[in-house]
């Protein structure tokens, strides 16, 4: 990457900068390879943040199926983390995992899990866990809220045999030939997944992030307190692919000790550590044993650190400096926080990030862990909160004695309640991934790059005023 024009003396964030197009020999955006080279096995440079409102097993599996990586948060009890990792590892890779609900659940219950506009199929289970038919999500739009899902089943839903699905393109064509949008996929009669036209199309564009055994990849976080090594070992035994050692102030002795403890286990897994925003921070954490640095203090949507402490750093400069330092050491950085638009992802990658971590934006999707809420205008949202908020601190330290909990609560650096609205046109994580990756693919071709290393080499970055940034926005009404 190079700058065009006089580099300002102050630090920069994403809205301060833009990409200047260059001559390109890349003839199609679909010829772009987005894969990061950070050793995580991801095929797109997108990581879902270790936040309780963002990454659960379902979101992690959906993201890995499209090549990204979800980081399960350190706040989940070890037993739940173990179960979540094992669940992700059992999920179909080539097909979607249909939403499964009890046949006794009501339409209103189902509408807390997915909107009728989501498309696809809902598989119903009876009290013994046996299949009790399937209904299309769109059926929820016309049924009464208190109707029992099991009573909406009429006839059997189309099923395709996995042996007939020789590839994603074949699956798409079979659905078109049958005149249907979605079907269950069976193998020797057993349900192994579901396929939609959109899902099959996506499978022709994305490559899943899979481990050596061909199972979906998943990451998990550990904090820096307690027996960090024992927890890391337990996660590795459950099958985790990447370990993230995470705390607000990553450049502290407690973090260095935690990294050494995890690295000392010799698990052979990439160790991500943070958060840092300086080259010195990178050097110390890499020396302790980290191979990827999580970068960002204060840019997060749920984060009040900058206003509480004045500490942090505008994110573009933080990524640029740390990525440069990491490169010299053969390490990598993940740009963590502050992403609101696909352009921010492109700029983080141009600054040198191997991958970009997204939290709050992904909280507002069907796949995130929370239930759907509806505001007074009928708009769908999910609740989100910061991992250093009073709410998160209470959940994390609730089992401590009241005095210890009260001491911890003094230091809240995040908001406890926020509404993240679902995009009516893009309610699922995969819809957002389509939007982000298509934007970034296009960014690469504007710079004449067909791969991430080429993009980082060729990107030309200019500086803009607030008016320049404003000009780039679309206008939903006339002026
Ligand atoms: N990227 C960002 O800007 C930020 C992210 N977060 C996220 O919130 C979650 C909770 O993290 P965290 O609050 O570190 O909790 P942790 O449970 O990881 O504990 C942090 C430990 O570090 C000690 N510590 C020393 N200085 C600091 C400091 N300035 N800030 C925080 N802890 C400090 C704490 O001791 P003691 O409590 O006694 O001080 C405690 O022992 C993490 O997921 C983290 O990534 C939180 C804030 C900023
Ligand atoms: N200072 C705080 N930072 C937080 C908190 N919870 C999460 N985070 C950080 O934000 C990113 C995600 O950023 P987003 O803009 O995509 O939401 C996450 O990975 C953490 O580093 C918090 O309570 N305080
Ligand atoms: K912020």
TrEMBL record:
- Cellular component terms, GO, for this chain's entry? cytosol
Listed A to Z, the keywords are: CBS domain, NAD, NADP, Oxidoreductase, Potassium, Purine salvage, Repeat
Q: Which GO terms describe its biological process?
A: IMP salvage; purine ribonucleoside salvage
Its pathway is:
Purine metabolism; IMP biosynthesis via salvage pathway
Which enzyme class? Answer: oxidoreductase
Biological function: Involved in the purine-salvage pathway. Catalyzes the NADPH-dependent conversion of GMP to IMP.
- Which NCBIfam families does the record cross-reference, listed alphabetically? IMP_DH_rel_1 (TIGR01303), PRK07807.1 (NF005869)
The molecule here is called GMP reductase
**Organism of provenance:** Protaetiibacter larvae
């Amino acid at each position: 990457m190079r700058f065009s024009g006089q580099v300002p003396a102050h630090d920069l964030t994403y809205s301060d900068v833009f990409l200047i197009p260059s001559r390109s020999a890349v003839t199609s955006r679909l010829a772009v390879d987005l894969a990061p080279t950070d050793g995580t096995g991801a095929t797109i440079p997108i990581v879902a943040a270790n936040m309780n409102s963002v990454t659960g097993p379902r979101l992690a599996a959906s993201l890995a199926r499209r090549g990204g990586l979800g980081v399960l948060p350190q706040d989940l009890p070890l037993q739940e983390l173990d179960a979540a990792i094992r669940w992700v590892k059992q999920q179909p890779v080539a097909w979607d995992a249909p939403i499964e609900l009890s046949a006794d659940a009501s339409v209103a219950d189902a509408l807390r899990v997915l909107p009728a506009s989501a498309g696809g199929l809902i598989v119903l289970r009876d009290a013994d866990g046996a299949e009790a038919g399937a209904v299309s999500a769109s059926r929820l739009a016309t049924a009464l809220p208190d109707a029992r899902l099991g009573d909406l089943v009429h006839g059997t839903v189309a099923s395709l045999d996995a042996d007939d699905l020789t590839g994603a393109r074949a699956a798409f064509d079979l659905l078109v030939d049958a005149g249907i949008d979605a079907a269950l996929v069976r193998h020797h009669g057993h349900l192994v997944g579901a396929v939609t036209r959109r899902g099959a199309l996506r499978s022709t564009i994305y490559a899943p992030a899979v481990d050596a055994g061909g199972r979906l990849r998943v990451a998990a976080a550990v904090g820096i307190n307690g027996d960090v090594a024992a927890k890391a070992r337990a996660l590795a035994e459950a099958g985790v692919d990447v370990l993230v050692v995470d705390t607000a102030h990553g450049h502290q002795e407690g973090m260095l000790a935690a990294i050494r403890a995890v690295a000392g286990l010799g698990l052979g897994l990439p160790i991500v550590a943070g958060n840092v925003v300086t080259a010195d921070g990178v050097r110390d954490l890499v020396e302790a044993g980290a191979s990827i640095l999580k970068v960002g203090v204060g840019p997060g949507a749920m984060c009040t650190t900058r206003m509480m402490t004045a500490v942090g750093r505008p994110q573009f400069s933080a990524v640029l400096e740390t990525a440069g330092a990491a490169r010299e050491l053969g390490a990598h950085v993940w740009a963590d926080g502050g992403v609101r638009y696909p352009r921010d992802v492109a700029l983080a990658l141009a600054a040198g990030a191997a991958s970009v971590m997204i939290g709050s934006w992904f909280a507002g999707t069907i796949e995130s862990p929370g239930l759907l809420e509806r505001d007074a205008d009928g708009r769908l949202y999910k609740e989100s909160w910061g991992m250093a908020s009073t709410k998160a601190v209470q959940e994390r330290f609730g089992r401590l004695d009241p005095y210890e909990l009260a001491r911890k609560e003094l230091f809240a650096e995040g908001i406890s309640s926020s509404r993240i609205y679902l995009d009516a046109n893009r309610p699922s994580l995969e819809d957002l991934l389509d939007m982000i990756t298509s934007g970034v693919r296009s960014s690469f071709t504007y710079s004449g790059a067909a791969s991430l290393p080429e993009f980082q080499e060729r990107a030309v970055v200019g500086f803009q005023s607030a008016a320049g940034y404003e000009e780039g926005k679309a206008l939903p009404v006339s002026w």
